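We close this part of the discussion by returning to an individual protein. Part of our work consisted of pairing the sequence of a single chain with a tokenised description of its backbone. No coordinates are needed to read the tokens, only the vocabulary itself. The amino acid sequence and the backbone structure tokens for this protein are reproduced below:
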Amino acid sequence: MRTVRGCLLLGLGSVLCGQTASFHEGEFHGRRAFVLENDKMRVSTLPGGGFIGEIRFKSSDPKKSVNPLRVPHYQTIDPFTYDPAKHGALYGTDIQRRLMSGYMGHFLCFPNYGPSSEAELRQDYGQHGEALAVEWKRNKVETRKDGVTLWYSADLPKTQYRVERMITLPSDETVGYIQESVENLALFDRPMNWVQHITFGPPFLEPGKNYVDASVERVGVRSGREIKEGAWPVSAGPEGKPVDFRLFPATPKSGRYHIWLLDRSHPKVYFAMYNPDYPVLIGYIFSSAENPWVGDWQENQRATRPPWDGKVIARGIDAGTTPLAEGLRRSVEMGSLFGVPTYRWIQARERLTQTYAFFLAEIPLGFKGVADLRTGDGRIVIVERETGKTISIKSAR
């Protein structure tokens, strides 16, 4: 007997194939990437900024193998290599320059969510914090029979933090498990924002066809500086007309931002996104105590400055400590919304850790959405809206 690519050859032409998981360094969108994969799915994360750029099924069907995460229409670079003289014309020179130079799918907004101040920008500290602007270095990879785990981390010299992420992909699941830590290297307590900016893009994201379901308690609708409380999933928008918060609307040259307060009566909260023309449901599961807020950011070809150029279609589901992408100072001044804190404290030399998961599930075309999501007994169980039918995927953790 011998093995070939994870298969056991038993003689007389019979083959027994087992589940495998692996790691390699490769390329994604022309950039260096850390790639984890098993027989069912592939995940690519970039050391340049720590962006997770790819979470997809492995399939010969292009609809099933679609990458739901946003990949820009322009070539990106590792943000720590950005040079205004070389790259300013393409990526801009404003507060978003490093973010836009490296933007991919899922990234960490830390230690602030939203803009920096003018004084901070003069120190080359820009939009959504320092974690996305530095190099993340591979610490360790462990490949086992039941899966593969990558540890990678980054030092944030401007803000005196260290961030670390561990991604585990089991051999026989379509679920990835993340353990993420932030460490305060300063000798004093301070406030912070800790938000996962998970951005989706075409072709999976399509105006008028993309929906998100989530465990939402209530929504916040901005009208100027005022935030009005609304009900999920349909409530009055800024103009007083009903808004379906699940739907990415087809309105051209538009954008919007809504606030979701997640249901903290359960230890876990979730969101799941789908397009009924694709057999793919992608979702995330978080701890409700550490991630009470979601900011639903939507862009449909409205922004025209470089490198947006009126071409960007994107939807960001931003889950974490903070409801508004207005910067750390604003979240501290706000203090709370609907009685829930809008930022978090970290003590001197403290290290905080949280765990969360992402998953892929195969769904039928014309899927109606997620009425409920349950975890337990080694499974994630998805209940379809309207029909009550269930889809179950293995999740041993």
Q: What stands out?
A: The longest helix spans residues 84-91. Confidence is low (pLDDT under 50) at residues 1-6, 8-16. The chain has one domain: 21-394. The first strand starts at residue 2 and ends at 4.
